[in-house]
Amino acid sequence: MSDRIALVTGGGKRLGAKIASALGADGWHVIVHYNASATEAQAVAADIVAAGGSARAVQFDLADTGAVEAFLADVGRVDVLINSASIFEMDRPEDVTPQSLEDHWRINTAAPVLLAKAMAAHHTQRASGCVINLLDQKLFNLNPDFFAYTLSKHALLGATTTMAMAFAPAVRVNAIAPGITLPSGGQNAEEFARAHTMNPMRGGSTPDDIIRAVRFILATPSMTGETITIDGGQHLDARNRDVMYAANPPQDDAS
Hints:
41% helix; alpha/beta; Short-chain dehydrogenase/reductase SDR; seven-stranded parallel β-sheet; Rossmann fold; 7 strands
């Protein structure tokens, strides 16, 4: 097993799975975290091993703060933490609920912070640990859609900066803020393609773009407290609706 250990939350599906596979190809022992996606996470780990790498799938619920802390206490040292898992549910300020706020806070903010805290406790040498938080270009191009999600990711943006200060010099903390990268929210292929090109570059971020950014951060030991926005310039194109709805307006909004 590789002596370089990477934990990827949400590593069984979507962008997390692609990052986990890339790290496995780069020689990391990858802990592929999942909550309910056991089949997918085990398949990602098996594919890494079949390709000559080292990986295992592990289950814990990010919404359970006790389970989050207990997991890393049991595992011990982790060298790279990729906080990819998140909850992304539609609400707006006029209909946000206490439950939505709490659900997004627990998974999108509290869990990444608690994992980073537990990870940092095992590092004393300069730049021996690295945390990468997956954020969102929405933070630099605000609109009221996905309100609880946006608040939780704003808190994680602040945590990225302050944890970088607190954990230096042993652990670096950075973030990547992608634009629309994979279909979400029930988008079909046509809807995704339309939304993906609604930016100055006429093409949004791809999984390969995000993987290149992960590799750049890992290869740059002087980099900490930074957020890389990769979105085809989407954050430069201010709108009062999320790009998902700007590209595909509901029928009752069309005229």
